[in-house]
Amino acid sequence: MESSESGPSLGPLAAPDRGTERPSASHNQPSKHREHPPKSPRRRHKGTRSQQRGAGHEQLLWESERLRLPGQQEHLEPSGSTSDTAESSPKRRAHFLHGPYPATHFGPKACILPNPTSVMHIQDPASQRLTWNKPPVNVLVIRKIRDESLVEPFKELCRFLVEEKQMMVYVERRVADDATLSKDEAFGSIRNQLCTFREGYDDISDCIDLIICLGGDGTLLYASSLFQGSVPPVMAFHLGSLGFLTPFKFESYKTEVAKVFEGNAAITLRSRLKVKVVKDMLQRTGQQPSSRETQQQEHNGLLPHTHTNSEAGKVTLQLQVLNEVVVDRGPSSYLSNVDLYLDGRLITSVQGDGVIVSTPTGSTAYAAAAGASMIHPNVPAIMVTPICPHSLSFRPIVVPAGVELMVRGKH
């Protein structure tokens, strides 16, 4: 996930004319102030250059307005010489300079409600609203496991979605097989209508319209990990220990869920990191990965995102994460020593316990505990934070969201 900023279009600014004299208020009465001599031709020539600078600034503003975002309709050209100047200008880039263009579709039916193109060129994050191409039908309910206090809210929410909203509710099989739910005879009719799935085996990414989480921030992070492609809209109710990502209170769940189903609900876009893990198995072990390792990856649900290059002997794992990526020393008692590359260029070497590469969402988690600053979720950036660095100069750094970071370990 990835954000669009917006703001009203700017018109041309008129530069002040420094070479024009102000008329006096009265021609009959003498002025009390000392009269100044008329301005010299050199002074008037300076004013003319000021007008030229103003005209150049007007041209620059119009050219900035002509930048069109992907998917936007082309606007009418401004009249006058500005249009002629804009037509002769070189070809402009059609994407953001500070980061990738954000996603506008979430799941099979949800998308961002577009703003009128005649009013705004770039959308304000505070004005982003959710709309539905088709009425939502399938809802995924994720509940925090091993928390008995969430059983009653879970049953109440499922009953509301099935009986009142006529929704198709999906839950994890281990949640549906919970002994507490099996013993409740009153909930038996609702339980029989629930659709179940197994993590790592059943693909539900193309059939879920909305995700509702009951728990804390960890529950929302787990729900995000289930969707490695497009993520449906997520509603997170605060029923856990931490609530950075869970803004809704369960006491008003009926009202909040109804607002989302009706559309035009406020949303917050959060970016994710696309991670590619490459391990050189031949250099480390001198042999190809065993079949047991492959079976373990398949059991953990990682095989669909795993690619093997038999010629180079490298196993590549691709994931999308919401919080952060941590490269640390693990159980080793020695310091880790890795090189940090930015778009293929060596930036620095990190010697310490490791390095954290986090999103703005993850800047409030492990990175904040390691001494990094918190980043607003609407800021397109990536935070790089060292873990206990063996250096006095290495501090957390922020890089644009569109760059490619590579952390390479030294052998």
TrEMBL record:
Signal peptide region: none
GO BP, sorted A to Z: NAD+ metabolic process; NADP+ biosynthetic process
Biased composition annotated in UniProt, kind: Polar residues: 79-88, 284-299
Highest taxon of the lineage: Eukaryota
GO terms assigned for molecular function: NAD+ kinase activity
Spans annotated as Disordered: 1-59, 71-100, 284-308
Keywords, sorted A to Z: Kinase, NAD, NADP, Transferase
EC annotation from Swiss-Prot or TrEMBL: 2.7.1.23
InterPro entries per UniProt: ATP-NAD_kinase_N (IPR017438), ATP-NAD_kinase_PpnK-typ_C (IPR017437), NAD/diacylglycerol_kinase_sf (IPR016064), NADK (IPR002504)
Bias-annotated ranges (Basic residues): 30-48
Pfam families documented for this protein: NAD_kinase, NAD_kinase_C
PANTHER family: NAD KINASE, NAD(+) KINASE
Family per similarity comment: Belongs to the NAD kinase family.
Protein name in UniProt: NAD(+) kinase
